[in-house]
Amino acid sequence: WLRTAVLRKGGQMDTHFASRDGTEIVSYAARLLSPNVTLSSLSAIYIEESVATKMLLNIYANQLIHVFADEAILCVAAFAFGREQQLEQVGTGTGAPATGSAAGAMVAEQGSVDFCISMGDLKKRAKRLQLLMSNELPNFQPTSPIAFESWFGNTLQSLKEDGAIAHMPLSDANDEELRFRMCQFSAFAAHQLYCYVESMFVTLASIMVFIPSDVNVNEATTDVNHAKAATGTANVATTKIQDAQLQKLAHEGALELFRKKLLDYVQCSSKENIKNCVGKLEELGYLAREVSPAVTFVVRRTPSYEDLRACFEEVNAMRWRPSGPAELEKIVTELRQVFAAKVAVSNTKL
Fold first, then answer.
1. Which positions ≥6 away from 108 have C-beta within 8 Å?
2. What is the mean pLDDT of each run of 10 residues along the chain (350 residues)?
C-alpha cells in the first residue's frame, strides 16, 4: 500500500525495489534494521520498544514527509479545526472510529469519522500551518513560486482521489463546507507531519518555562533564572533566553515528556527539528535576537508574550492528541523541573 502511494505521489524509488514484492521488501528492511527490528521464522515482525529504535526508524522514514507534505497540511488542519462527525460503521469491521492513537486511525480504511470545515477556515488554517512548518518544508516558504490558491485546489483534488474527502462542494466560496474523512491515507499523511508540529509545541512550551508567571508588565527585565532586576527604568518586562539553553531544554524536556507519556512522538526531540522551530519563531517575531556575547533571545511580555501564548495554544490544537488546560500546565511544570535539575546555582548554565 505504502509503495503504491509513494509512487503515485511521484516519490523517487529505486526501480529494483519498486518492482519487488512486499515479502522481499520487508525481509530486506528487517536485515537493515537488525537488531532493533527482527523477523521471525514465522514472518512475525518484532520491533524493540526503545527511544533509540524509534529515532532509527524516523531516520529511515524522514523523506516520507516531503512526499506527502501537501496532503498532510490540509489533513492536519481539518482534523484539528474541523467539526467531528461520527458515521455509521461501513462493511464488516474494516472501518474504525478515531481512537486518539495512530493505530486507531490507520485501520479506518473505509472511514467512520468525518471532519467538517468551511473552505475559508481551511485556507486560513492551512496558510498558518504552512508558515509554521516552512523551515522544515522549504516548498512552503513565502518565496515559493506556487500560488496558494493553485496549490490548495490541486491538493484538494488529490485528496479526493485518495478517498480522504467525503464531500467537496462545486464552488470554492469561503462559506462552502468540506468533509474530510479519517481514512487510511489521510491518517497516514497527517502522521508524517504531527512529529514536526509536536517539535514546535515543545519548543514553545520550553519558552514558557523561562517566563515567570508573576511578572507584571510594569516590572523590569527578568533573566533566565527569573531574578527580577528592579532598575525602575523599563516600561515592559522582558525575558532573556540563551539560544543554547533553550534548544537543550527543548531537547531534553521532550525526551522526559515522552517518557511520561505527555508527548506522542519521541522524534519531536530531534535537535535539528528544534533548531528549525527556534529559527521560525525568531523569523515570525516571537523572539528577538541579541548577541552579548552568546546568542540570546528576548521575549517582551507585552504584546509579544500574549501573541506567544496564543501561538502555543494554536499549535497545541494542531497536535494529534491536544492537551487540555490541566495537562498543558503539567507539561510546563515538568519542563521547569527538567530546567531546575540542570541548574545547581543561579548562575549555572543549562
1. 95, 96, 97, 98, 182, 183, 184, 187
2. 87 77 83 85 82 85 91 97 74 38 42 87 97 93 89 95 90 92 93 96 92 47 36 52 91 95 94 95 89 78 77 96 94 90 47
